[in-house]
Structure formats: structure tokens, C-alpha cells
Fold:
Amino acid sequence: MLEWLELSGLGPHLARFRRWLDKMPNREFSQLGVWGKFGRLMLVLAVLGLISAPAIWLLAK
Structure:
């Protein structure tokens, strides 16, 4: 599937990002500071936007 999406070159970058996430402390959302909460919310919004953008484009077409 990665070849179909032409994301095959992102493998090393995704692995590095995963290793960085594994080193981060595992804290609950309520234990985060303001910037941590903001960062997590922006990450969720970005992923939802990337997932829903093709669907919106297909429906609007």
C-alpha cells in the first residue's frame, strides 16, 4: 500500500519519529501543560484533516 500512496521514502523518517515518541514520557492528557495539550490537539486535527480531505474532495467533485 505504501507504494500505491508513494510514501515508500518516508519509512526511515517514520521510524525515527516512532523512536522519538517511544522516548517521550507516557503522561495522561490531564498531566500535560498548556503547550502539550495544544500540541496534541493540533496533531489530532492535522491527522483528521489528512484523513477527511480526500473524502471531502470526492464528495464535492
